[in-house]
Amino acid sequence: MSNELVLRNVVNDDLPIFFEYQLDQEANSMAAFIARDPTDQEAFMAHWHRILADKTNIIQTISFNGQVAGSVSSYEEEGKPEVTYWLGKEYWGQGIATRALKEFLAHHNPTRPIYARVAKDNLGSRRVLEKCGFKIIGESKGFANARGQEIEELLLELREVSSDNL
Q: Do 34 and 92 touch, CB atoms closer than 8 A?
């Protein structure tokens, strides 16, 4: 079996797949900070068209063995670059998120420092970030729509990519 991972520009046909992936309740709970109503497809599509039109965002589709596995992107938050990613549940636990984020950081957004946020109890996503060289630099609390309550969140920073992380 092949393990071909490719990052490519997002096309409109990817958006319904992204929408289906973000409907998963377990994924939403882990991500925690999601849209108020993840079932609102019209709002989802409007959001994606807005972020795709923003030229400061760098957004890539993660293709794994020719299938849309998810997305990885960077955007500005309070004047600082941040990364985010989302994988369909069927692609979890295969190292795809780590590979995709490493590729993204090396070839699509080499800006440093760059930041990421993760729910403190989302150990899988935290591990992906740490494997890519991110270090925890702070904690905060925020309201998590997926959980209907305030939760703890970690702020991570990547200052530089070392050869250990490639």
A: no
Judge whether 73 and 107 are in contact, CB under 8 Å.
Answer: no
Cβ neighbours of residue 148 under 8 Å, at least 6 residues apart? none
| Model pLDDT for residues 85-139, shown as the tens digit of each residue | 999 999 999 999 999 999 999 999 999 999 999 999 999 999 999 999 999 999 9
CB 117 within 8 A of CB 156: yes
* Strand stretches in the chain, DSSP E: 5-9, 58-64, 67-77, 80-87, 114-119, 135-144, 149-158
Nearest-angstrom CA–CA distance, 10 and 32: 24
CB 166 within 8 A of CB 106: yes
- CA 106/CA 123 separation, integer angstroms: 23
pTM to 2 decimals?
0.93
Query: Beta-carbon neighbour count of residue 24 at 10 Å?
Result: 15
114-119 and 67-77 as β-strands: parallel, antiparallel, unpaired? unpaired
Instruction: Give 23-81 pLDDT, tens digit per residue.
Output: 998 998 888 788 889 999 999 999 999 999 999 999 999 999 999 999 999 999 999 99
Q: How far apart are CA 30 and CA 57, in angstroms?
A: 24
